[in-house]
């Protein structure tokens, strides 16, 4: 990426000035927190980095009320350590992009996680980032500081702007402060694993599991690879009696010839860390994130295998991560046929320059998104070209 220089505002006032100055000079600004996702999207040329590192630290944290407010540039690992000390968690289980780009984990900022709407495996039961994002302070592309949302879930007057910001990828505002709902950490954790299930058997297990009232908070599947058998893993969370009862119910759902084992705590931790880093997929091959209805996952992965893709499931089949050298048009056709959409997450510079990052949308939706962006950023200060192909 080529940048002419950077600007590092020290407070809201200097941030407003920097954005106003950029608008007057027709300069494009790329918002940068921890830089963990800098290789997401097309390469950018001639933009100025808007370094947000000054907007960090805890503003307010009230554990009994399950609400915290922090600077948007606060490192994710600091936020998670803080709530862990209080026996709490960010229930959407933030997904850290750093490792999939060959970077260390923990560099992501909480504002970057929100802007990318990056939820992990717990999204299966706890919902997405926007379901836990209560309010924020920010500066728009007009250089105007404003506040939206509040400290409670139902505090919506007019537009629910926090939901709009989740997944906006820095194209609407520069977040300076965010307020999030937190939840108590579960009393008991257990990871159950069964090997050698086919994709069809794993999907049947997921379907039965979700209808059995079990306390499963994550459900993933890794198909067989070489000499390694397939792995189906379920993470149970809750009060100890509930976890024990759910384990018994799940064992009854597994085909008789297979055994559902409970992993030791350390082995379970290693498994989930490797899974979230997508360690089973080739990091030298383009990576796609494909979201479909879980019922369409088998159709999707059948089509992907015909494209010589390797893949794995999260969210009980609702999220498929796939690595393939196949043309982008073929991957997106497979996603569309499965009633889903495919995002290009990692690829060569040439491919990222030539391929829309996001799945192309209907013209009416594209026009609506353009109107929303212009309402926050009329001069296009935050339009860096990172996702420009997707607007065509």
> Structural class of the secondary elements?
alpha+beta
Helix content: 25-40%
Mean pLDDT: 92
Tally of individual helices: 12
* Straight-line N-to-C gap: 22 Å
* Beta-strand percent range: 25-35%
Strand order of the largest sheet: 4-5-9-7-8
Q: Give the beta-strand count.
A: 18
Q: How big is the Rg?
A: 21 Å
Q: Which sequence of SSEs, written as H and E, runs from N to C?
A: EHEEEEHEHHEEHEEEHEEHEHEHEEHEHH
Features:
392 residues; alpha+beta; five-stranded antiparallel sheet; four-stranded antiparallel sheet; 18 strands
Task: Tell me about this structure.
The protein is α+β, with helices and mostly antiparallel strands. 30% of the residues lie in helices and 25% in strands. It has a five-stranded antiparallel sheet. It has a four-stranded antiparallel sheet with strand order 12-13-11-14. It has a four-stranded antiparallel sheet with strand order 16-17-15-18, with helices on one face. A hairpin with a 4-residue loop joins strand 4 and strand 5. The chain is globular. About 1% of the residues have low confidence.
